Every structure is written in C-alpha cells, then in structure tokens.
Amino acid sequence: AGSQLKEIFDKINNLLSGKSVLTGGRTVSVTQHPQGLDFVYYKLAEKFVNQGEEEVASNRDAAFSIAVVASGIWEMHPRVGDLFLAHLHKKCPYSVPFYPALKEGTSMEEYQRMLGYQVKDSKLEEQDHFLKRMSGLIRLYAAIIQLRWPYGNKQGTHPHGLNNGWRWLAQMLNMEPLADVTATLLRDFLEVCGNALMKQYQVQFWKMMVLIREDYIPRIEAITSSGQMGSLKRLKQFVEKCLQQKEMPLPKGALQSSFWRS
Question: Which Pfam family is one of those matched by this entry (predicted)?
Fold first, then answer.
C-alpha cells in the first residue's frame, strides 16, 4: 500500500539524515561511527540492486514500488544513486550497456563473472536463472528512470531521468546483439519504459521502434540458434503489436494515483 511505502521511505530518509531510527528492537544512528553514513549509503545501494535481481526477478510488478522509493532516496541523497549505478553495472554490465570482451590472461570463470553470471564452486548458473536475474535488474532500472517520489519538492529535475533510458536504447541498438540476452533485455526495457519514452520522444520513439523491427531484430535472428528462439519471438511479437496499434501499453504494475491513497 502507498502508506506502507511512505513509512519505509521516511525511515530510510531519517536514517540517512542522521536521525535515530528504531530497527530490529534497537535504536541506530549513522552518527554512531565516523564512517557510519558511508557504510549505510553503500549497503543501501547494494540492497536496492539485490531487490532487482531477487524480488523483481520473481515478481515483475514489484519493480515500481521498489523503484519509486529508490528514485526518491536518490533525489535526496545523490551519493546513494552513484553507488546504486556502480553496484548495478557490476552485477549487470548490460545496464551500461556494455558487453565485456574476453581478454588474454582472463580465466573463463572470471570472464563469466564479468558477464554477470554467478559461478559457485566452478559451477555456472543455468541460463534461465541468469536471464531472470538480468531481467529483474533491467526492469528495476527502467522503472527508476521514469518515476519520482510523489511527496518530494519536484523543483529540480529527476536525478537520473528518461534521457538515460533513451541513451541506453540507442547504445544498445548500436552494439552487436548477443543471442538470448539482447532480445530478453530489450523487451523487458520496452515493456517497463516504452510508454514513458513514447510520451517523451513521440515521433523519434516510433522511428526507433521501426529501426528495431526492420534492422535490429533481423540482426538478432542471424545469431540465434533454433533452441534460443523463445526470447526473440516474444520481442518480435511485442514490437509488431505496438507498431500495429501505434501504442505502447502502460506497464503492468505501474503505480496509479489511487495507489497513494491506499
């Protein structure tokens, strides 16, 4: 509910502002240690990213409630935003977007970690699980760039607004696609952020969508094996439907104004 989110936001904001906060039965304050605030900034940013790869990965609609809190905290405490991007880019290089290249002298295990895979005891996580986590992270990022905390002063601009989404999309389309990964994340991003980008960029946005259909999807197709067609098919259908209807649907789970009265 909106009232619960406000409670969570206020508690985090109070903690970062140096006030005493009751948690787990004890009172804590960042002033209790000279590095207290730095530590809390770091851990909070890390927790936001973890929620992307865990909660949003298993419940896509959760992206918006987590993102609106993260966006508001970022606005009031810019350091959290810098650290959030650092954690996000490390866990999901595709959020830059960047595809690390295999360099001489880098072990295969190390390289897989650079690509965002979890490697435990030399065992690589399954592709499905990997894609699910990356989806969660991209969806959280795509939600943050379009949302603002409704109780803020709204005077300044968004600390990391929609122009970053436009840049991400443009850079993504300038890169050689990766089988499975590119199609999955492109669809995730468009599903969450497409409606906001359409409203902001209008004609330019539709040109970009035509480019995806005419030029980029065939490029993904060219490197996709028959066993990996699922994500490509879903992207294709989504883009086709939006172009036919000349409409980007409002994302599922988006917070309506009535939410804040709950």
Answer: GLE1
